Amino acid sequence: MNTLRPAVVLLSGGMDSTVLLHHVARECNGATLHALSFNYGQRHSRELQSAAFQARAVSAAHRVMDITFMGSLIQAGSALIEGGQEVPDLDTLTAEELTQPPTYVPNRNMMLLSMAAAYAEAHNVTDVYYGAQAQDEYGYWDCTPAFLERINHILALNRKSPITVHAPFVGFSKAKTLERGQDLGVDFAQTWSCYRGGETACGTCPTCVERLNAFAANQLQDPLPYG
Questions:
Q1: Cα–Cα nearest to 62, from 8, 137, 99, 20
Q2: Where does residue 124 rank: exposed (0-12), middle (13-18), buried (19+ CB within 10 A)?
Q3: Does this model's pTM top 0.90?
Q4: Any idea where the domains of the chain sit in the sequence?
Q5: Spatial contact of 47 and 192, defined as CB atoms under 8 Å apart
Q6: Which pairing describes strands 33-39 and 7-10: parallel, antiparallel, or unpaired?
Q7: What mean pLDDT value characterizes the chain?
Q8: Beta carbons of 111 and 73 less than 8 angstroms apart
Q9: Res. 108 pLDDT band, cuts 50 70 90
């Protein structure tokens, strides 16, 4: 990369998107960086506070888009939406459920990337980044190389201003993403992962377990409080 081209980064405030933001900021060499966050009715909307902190840390132009209407459309299909089914502990999920657990949000990444691509096109930006990562314990179809390839095929149909979606960590384990964040000086105390979104992280939901395992693999202490 290492260019002066501006970029749009999807920024949730979690570990993966935060490391990605700092990675892109480093590689863009001071070019304009747009960070887009979304309030879609998620239980863990406190992650947006972390997103705002991280955007300021890299001097990115930050916008939080209110699309809470989306939650009412998909509440019945995801434990991540406020008012939906309960967030499960990772160790309660069957092998079949791990292929696409109840914490999956129907078509979320396609919707968010579509909006990000529209924003990028309107602002004369050609590159959009999102923090897809190869989950260690479970999987989402919209965080895979196959999804990335196909969405780029669709966006390439644009006759004037095609947008390219990048996911540089799509093959990374959570531990490798954390290692990259350490190299970049990311403040992980200002990130949020827990799907339950309480005052402290639960330590048992799918993303908490992956996060704790990543810190352990790097022989580091997670700075977040766990209750």
A1: 8
A2: exposed
A3: yes
A4: 7-217
A5: yes
A6: parallel
A7: 95
A8: no
A9: very high
Contacts of 137 (CB under 8 A, 6+ apart): 90, 98, 206, 209, 210, 213
For residues 201 and 5, what is the distance between their CA atoms, to the nearest angstrom? 37
Rounded Cα distance, 78 and 122, in Å: 31
Helix (H, G, I), strand (E, B) or coil at 39: strand
- CATH superfamily of the 7-217 domain: HUPs (3.40.50.620)
Contact partners, residue 82, CB within 8 Å, separation at least 6: 41, 42, 43, 45, 71, 75
Q: Which residue has the tokens 């930050």?
A: 62
In one letter, which amino acid is 162? P
CA pair distance 70, 202, nearest whole angstrom: 26
User: For position 53, what pLDDT does the model report?
Assistant: 98
> Using an 8 Å Cβ cutoff, are 126 and 158 in contact?
no
Query: pLDDT grade, residue 30 (50/70/90)?
Result: confident
